[in-house]
Amino acid sequence: MAMRWVPALVVAALWWWAVLRMALVPGRTGIVEGAMVAGGWGLSLLPVHVTPGPSARSGPTRASRRRRWGGGSGPS
Fold this sequence. Notes:
Helix content: 55-70%
Largest sheet: none
Oligomer: single chain
Structural class: mainly alpha
Distance between the termini: 51 Å
Strand content: under 5%
């Protein structure tokens, strides 16, 4: 289980190295650091914008069935 986290931690460490290098020594950074920082920032946007929508095959949930048929809590 720990072996699958090793590549993620290595990539995260390299990204932070590039970010700190660009922030602390901006005159000595190159295209590699810039590409790493921009790529990491772009990847951070993916989980927000590429999440799957509700599946049409999943059907109604238990709560929506209760609302539809008048069951559940609340004043009547």
